[in-house]
Amino acid sequence: MTSPTTPLGEARYFVREADIAGYHPANHVGTLNKRLIGPETVGARQLEVLVGHIQKGKGALPHAHPGIEQVCYLLEGRAVAEVCGQRQEMHPGDSCFFPAGEMHTFTVVSDEPVRVLVIYSPPYEERADRVIRPADAAAGH
What we know:
The protein is mainly beta. It has one helix at 134-138, and strands at 28-37, 48-63, 69-76, 79-83, 86-90, 95-98, 104-108, 114-121. It is built from 1 helix and 8 strands.
């Protein structure tokens, strides 16, 4: 796989958030993500970095990513993260780790929206085969 290129045909290694189109991820409400680093932006194959903008009271419904580790680093706002029976209110500068395959949630509790940096390894790429929801787990998927 080669890296995406600039208009001059050079490999692309730098990304501005303002230049990235946002998308609404599955299994999330009130969320707009921008994939900063990934296969389609810079050719990254082992990790993916995105920034999420999440509205008050909204966030990620329970889900897990088999074979994918996830880190969240809170930039703005406050949120509650839950994983493996642990629950923590996060503030700017806090981070959390979601182990591969473990159900987790992330919910905004501040009046202002949250801005969060999210890292996946390997890349998640919003692929349906890389996420499990509680109904999927109960059905044995």
